Each structure stands twice: as C-alpha cells, then as structure tokens.
Recover the amino acids of this structure.
C-alpha cells in the first residue's frame, strides 16, 4: 500500500493501522479457529499454488485433515502428495493436476471414489496399491494410460472390487480372461 507520507499528503493518515505484535495466545487462538482436524468435507480447488510458501502451507493444512471424508483438490498443479495421510477420506477429486503415478497420491485406505482425470499418469503401475481399499469408482479420463492396450481389463483385473471406470459400469468383457478374449477374436477359415 501507499507509504505513511503519501497517505499524510492525501489526508488519509487515519487509514494507517499500526501493526501490533501477535502474542502466543493469539497465535494459538487463530490455530484453533482453523479447526482443520474436524473438517469432514473440504474444497481446496483452484488455489494457484505458485509460491513455495503457499505449497508448504497447503501441505500443512492437508496433514491436519484427519477426519475429512470428501476432499476436492482440483487444478492446483499438485505433483506429489505421498507424504499425506487421509485416514477417513472416502471421496477424493484431484483432477487437472500434474500427477504422473499412483505412487504420488496420498495414503487413502478408506477411498471409495477417486477421480484423477486430466493428470499425466502414463502407466497403471502402482494401481494395485488400491486393491485392499473399498474403491468402487475410478476416473482416469484424459490420462496417457487410457490409451494402453486392454486398459479396462488391466484396471479391473488389478482392482476386482471396482464397479465403475471412467463413468462406465463394469462390463462382462472387462472381466474375461485374456486367452478367451483372443479366442473370440480369432476367425477360422476352412
């Protein structure tokens, strides 16, 4: 803002508020006001995390989300949340970020709905880490791994409890063993 001198010449010196020292009690009260630990649903999308301080503060908040069940982190340029643990998270939306692997996601043992659309996930390596979770729906649209041969079969074989992939329910051909699919495609010419 303008300097004190400039405000004085404008006749707005009353607009300047002196900075007061923040006491430890006030810091503690401010921390209590945040109350991230009891948050059940949170949307922290579009945070424009361009500065290291912002990223560190963002990660500090994420580490405090011990009770969050629904979390949206869309379009934040995130690349690695592997150090974060979200023990109660059932729904996580991290669309439009910069994840390249399933290993970069937070620990989410209770996940049921995971949306990773428009990231940069190349392979399905690490997807089996979600095998022992209650994951029911997964969205991987607009990721390079979507163009992998037998993409749907590979995902469903890695995650047998999965019911929906990219908004499409599990189909019978998604579960067929590889050899029977090849046999059905063969044509016998006599």
């Amino acid at each position: 803002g303008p300097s004190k001198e400039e405000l004085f010449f404008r006749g707005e010196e009353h607009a300047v508020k002196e900075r007061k020292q923040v006491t430890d009690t006030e810091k503690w009260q401010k921390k209590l006001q945040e109350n991230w630990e009891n948050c059940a649903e949170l949307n922290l999308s579009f945070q424009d995390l361009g500065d290291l301080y912002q990223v560190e503060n963002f990660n500090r908040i994420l580490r405090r989300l011990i009770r969050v069940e629904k979390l949206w982190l869309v379009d934040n340029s995130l690349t690695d949340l592997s150090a974060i643990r979200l023990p109660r998270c059932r729904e996580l939306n991290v669309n439009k970020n910069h994840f390249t692997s399933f290993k970069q996601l937070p620990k989410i043992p209770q996940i049921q709905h995971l949306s990773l659309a428009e990231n940069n996930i190349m392979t399905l390596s690490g997807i089996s880490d979600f095998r022992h979770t209650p994951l029911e729906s997964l969205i991987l649209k607009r990721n390079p791994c979507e163009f992998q041969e037998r993409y749907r079969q590979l995902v469903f074989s890695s995650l047998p409890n999965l019911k929906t992939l990219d908004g499409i329910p599990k189909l019978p051909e998604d579960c067929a063993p590889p050899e029977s699919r090849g046999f059905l495609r063969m044509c016998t010419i006599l």
User: Anything to note?
Assistant: Confidence is low (pLDDT under 50) at residues 180-184. Residues 1-33 form one domain.
